[in-house]
Amino acid sequence: MAKENKLPESYYTDLQALQAVDFTLVELTLYLDTHPDDLEALKQFNSAAKKSAELRAAFEARYGPLREFGHSYSSYPWQWSKAPWPWQV
Amino acid sequence: MPTYRKWYYPYSSPFDPCPPLTRVPYETPVQLYLGFQPPGMKQFSPLQALSHGTLWPGLYTPYTDPYNPKKKEA
Predict the structure, then answer these.
(1) Which domain holds residue A37?
(2) Total number of domains in chain A
């Protein structure tokens, strides 16, 4: 984290990019539930899932874990209980 | 942007106890008529989809306040 305990501006742009990809995943999941044989949407879903994983890995490498209970790695010392908390983001 | 709002004009009788209802709005968004969503519809970009709340512009039906439409929804 930066010395002066404040979030870098790029935190929000990276987070928004991740949220955008995750939102398209939500929409495509709901769409594919009712259209299982739509190959186009399925390809888009898989590429979006791959992109989301990449974005998440890059984000967590820079800013710390996003999810707990083993869904995210943590560097030493334990990062999860450190600021910013979800409501502070 | 087509508006999905329709108006209903209830009958007001001279013997009504309360002041008459002028007109009543009701929403008819596109998903009422769409039925089964066709594959391969046009899509928003991810960032636009995030702010619009849906991935497909065809299904984007924002709700604006019918009683004072000029005030921008928060």
Answers:
(1) 11-66+76-88
(2) 1
